UniProtKB/TrEMBL annotation:
The keyword Transcription applies. It comes from Pseudonocardia acidicola. Residues 21-80 form the RNA polymerase sigma-70 region domain. The keyword Transcription applies. Residues 187-287 form the DUF6596 domain. Pfam families: DUF6596, Sigma70_r2, Sigma70_r4_2. Keywords: DNA-binding, Sigma factor, Transcription, Transcription regulation. This is RNA polymerase sigma factor. Belongs to the sigma-70 factor family. ECF subfamily.
Amino acid sequence: MTHTDAHRAIEAVWRIESARLIAGLARFVHDVGLAEELAQDALVAALEQWPESGVPRNPGAWLMTIAKRRAIDVLRRKERFERKLSALGRELETEPEGAGADAEALAGDIEDDLLRLVFIACHPVLSTEARVALTLRLLGGLTTEEIARAFLVPESTVAQRIVRAKRTLAKAQIPFEVPAPEERAARLSSVLEVLYLVFNEGYSATAGDDWMRPALCEEALRLGRVLAELVPQEPEVHGLVALMEIQASRMRARVDSSGEPVLLLDQDRGRWDHLLIRRGLAALERAEALDRTRGPYTLQAAIAACHGRARTAEETDWTRIAALYAALARLTPSPVVELNRAVALAMAFGPAVGLGLVDELTPEPSLKDYHLLPSVRGDLLAKLGRFDEAHEEFERAASLTRNARERTLLVERAAACVRTGTGQPGRPL
């Protein structure tokens, strides 16, 4: 095996095994930061040895064995961990050596360890930015450079967020355990929020030159599927997975050959991934079977399903979508939800109806710098033939967005209002 082949293999193994490795180690040392350091030590050992010895039969077990031996060295220097050292020592005495280690060398219940790590990485004691960075680092196996590139921030910023997050968890003495039943709903909500934030940043990038960052969507979806297997009785987990599956199904159709945005009603539905749609609809069925009242992610998945089931844009059931948004607004009141409801009302009952609701939202302080408010208003004004006003709204939206592709689209629509008296109105994203 060449060094290049070995490094590629190690990178692939790390992506697959790093979360399990860190989770298993954290259960022993009760310190996420130390667990990651031990896992990194094992990775270094693999980089040194595998190019010569080859990839072991069970690479995950090999890495765990090496990491535990590093843990013994660390714990020997910390007398207060004597009992843990003794327990680790006894366990290692029964483990096979080196690269031939069997799967049994992976300590404990992997699923429980992973679930504990999910709840630690997304703990509410951390800031939202820290939760996102730590989740991608510990569960996704992404490097700080990859995370920084995905979110268009300096690598040093991501590194600082991760370091601060580990210190915060250590200082707060957060136990490495699945939350008690009375805490679980709130903690699970934090986990789902992080996954959806990651997905949304990939699906509609808030800044930069690209309309989408598919790698982030794929990572959020992968973690969502893992979580659904870990907590199969939680309806909102399946609801979120359903939402992400259906949304992700449209990604190939959301840009043209030059990377420019293609809006929802203009997309070639033949390019939608119908396997993902079927998976999403199945996840939605599971969510609704577990809880017929439907939580916010399940409601959003039901909205996405209306688009997924429509063979053509004209077949979209906008009346049902408007009703689902109304239910979502009652459950989780939000100006953004109301803005989306306005679009659905406009599509179902005419632009004047939608514009009435949008105009009610215009004074809302939280939407002051939200570019989609003037963008939607521009759509509706253009449909009503009020092109001068629509032009102003599209210009304002273009000035507010931080995404280069979206800015270009909005500037073009503003120009179209002036040039031809048409702004391609009423085109939901």
